[in-house]
Each structure stands twice: as C-alpha cells, then as structure tokens.
Amino acid sequence: MLKKGVLGWPQIAGLGVSLVIAGQFSGWNYGLVGNGWANMLAATLLMAMLCGGLALCIAELSTAQPHAGGVFAYAQIAFGPFVGYLVGAACALALTIGTGAAASFLGAYIESVFGFGGWAVRVALFAVIIGIHMVGVGEALGLTLVAGAIAVAALLAFGGAMLPHVQWTNLLPDGGGFVHALSPAGIFACVPFAIWMFICLEQVSSAAEEAADPGHSMSRGIAAAVATLLLTALTVVVSAPGAAGIATVGGAADPLYAAMTHRGLYGEHDLLPLIVGCGAVAGLLATFFSIAFSASRQIYALARDGHFPRLLARTNRRGAPWTALALLVVVGLPLTLVPPEKLLLCIVLLLGSCHLVLFAAYLKLRRTHAHWVRPFRVRGGPAVACIGMALTLVVIAACFQLELALLGALAAVMAAVILNYGLRAGRAAQPLESPEHV
Hints:
- This protein has helices spanning 9-20, 37-64, 71-79, 81-114, 119-135, 137-162, 168-171, 178-181, 184-194, 214-244, 246-250, 255-261, 271-304, 322-335, 340-368, 381-398, 404-424.
- It is mainly alpha-helical.
- Helix 1 (9-20) runs parallel beside helix 10 (214-244).
- The longest helix is centred in the N-terminal third of the chain and has 34 residues, at 81-114.
C-alpha cells in the first residue's frame, strides 16, 4: 500500500513545477526557428491556458476521487475499462520515454557545465534517482522540491540579468508590430515546442492518494505551480531572444547559456552562466525525479487493477512501488541512446491524445457523477474543458510533423498495448468508485 497523508500543498506545487521546469531551459526555443517570436509567445500563452486548465480540471476530479493512477482512473470511470486503460498506458509510455529524454538532457548539461559525461553518467543518474525513490516518496519529493526551487531561482536570476538587455528589434527584426507578425501557420508550427514548457503538469494528480487533505492541498498546489511556471516561461521567452536575437537562441542546445554569452555579454567563466547552468542541472534533476514518480504510479495503478502483470504492483516496506521503478530503468536507460529531440514529439503526441480524452471525461463526469463530493470545483469548468479540447486538437495535428519511422514505432507499441488488454481484459479490475470516495 502507498503511504497516505504525506504530501502537503508545497510538495504538490513542487512536484508540479518539477515535472515541467526542465522544458524551460531547452527544447522550447526550436519553435522560434522560421516562425518568429510573436508566434512563439502566442503559442506559449495558449499552451499555458491548455495545460493549466487541464491540471485544474483533473484537480477537481482528484479531490473527489483520489487515485494513484490519476488520469487513467478518471478516463476509466467515464468511458469504461478499455478507454481508461489506453489513456493510462499511453501516459505511462510517454512518461517512461520521458525518463530517457530527461537523462539524456541531464547528461549533456552535466558535461557542458562540469566537463564530464557519457554513458557512465546516465547509468549513475538512473541508479541514484531510482534508488532514492525506492527509499520512499517523502524523501524523493523532498529533494525534488529543493531542486525545483533552485531551477526556478536560476530562471528568475537569468531574467533579472537579461531583461535590461532586451531590444524590441531582436524580437521583431522586420520592424513590424506584434499583431502584424502573428500568423495562424506560425502559431501552429510553434505549438509542439511551446507546450514543452507546461506539459505533464496534469500528472501531479497521481499524488492525490498520498496527499494530506486532498481537497485543499491539490488545488492550492496546482494553482501555485501554474502561476510559477507561467512566470518563468514568459521570463525566458522574452529575455533570451530579446537579448541575443532569434538566430542565436533558436537553434541552441542551451538557449539561456547562448543568450548570456552572446557577443561577450557574459564570459563563459562568469558567475551568472555558472548559476544558470547549475540551475539547468537542478531543473533536469527535479524533472527526472518527478517523471519517475508519476510514471511509476501510473504503472503501479494499472498493474494493481489487473491491466499489467501483478508483479508491477508490488511495493516495498517503505511503500514505494519498487518493481514499477525497476521497469523504468529497463526501458528508460536504453532510450538515452535515441536523440532526445526525436523523443520530444513522441511524448507530446502521446500526452496530447490523452488530454483530449481527459477533457471529455471531465465533462462527462461532471454530468453523470454530480453526486460526488468535490472539495474543489473549477469555475466555468465545462467552458474550460471545451476550450481545452479545441486547443488539444491543434496540438495533436501539429505533432504529425514527426518523422514517419517514429510514428510507425509508436503505432506498433500501441498495437501491442491493445493486444495486452485483449489478453487481460477478463482479469482486470472494474473501475474504482469505492463508497469512501463518493
């Protein structure tokens, strides 16, 4: 059994921020290339609206029906075991892929900042991070909260240092106005990269079963996470290209470092680049911790309900799902051999497909399960969900710029997932809706 009542709202907020914060150090900037800053800013605001709205909708469900499987459980209650299983499996797959991408990004940053890296570092990262999770969720999330706070501080320090150097001509080099620079095609192309700064925020719902007073801690924690992430995202989107130009930042593997060292603004050995580099490492560590937490809980919940082998539902004496955590090493470590930028769109496509189902599940459960006691309700929830569904369709369509080989690989994996369901359907548990939660 998982431990109950060990997470307060600051830890929930820390988990939410940590799940996402690494995407604000790199990855988002590729949307600038060929599309312009105005379109990237518009896409950023739209994706903040999408992911923040989804997180709040899921928070409402998680306070009414806490469940370690989070999003999988709510899709299952709304649309039945098969749809719930597909959502849970897709989320688990995306998060497991995310462990490989996080380890690759982290290894690259460690090599850039500290001068050592390679395969040995990636193995060590998996060993340390999964090992800490084996000790227990309280210890793991305590470190996550610290690492996420360091990353946020580094981003704000970056913004404070770079904003005075922002020039409007760097953001709009053609000299036109902001509205004139906007285009539907440009915003569409930026969407998969802009959502990288916010995606996975809804996965914080996996912590509801271990939260103290979920009705207050989940809503407060998610609201704090959304506000923090929006502030840091706007900081980097404005200050990095505004100080160094779109050409410098757009194609950089480390856009913040590239912006700081552009034209000798800061030297490579100055204190601020070192602080931001360490903040990037901390942010990636926090994201790695958080992805491992959410992925293991998704796998655990699916196995507990009979959709995956029961072996994956085992917990140790500290309440940690140790077999699910071990699976992350088996799958995630080999994925560090794949270029992480190729994994980005796979993750966005998988999670985007889940988002569409989750918004629909929220709308249905609002109507069919009105009797649930909801300690937290989203104001204008149905409207938020409808807008979110429309934006999610845009995200899914934009992800089909993914190369054909990876699309084929994802299709093959999902076919295997469906086959697994067919073999196990008779043994899977019914949707969770125990009287104590109603």
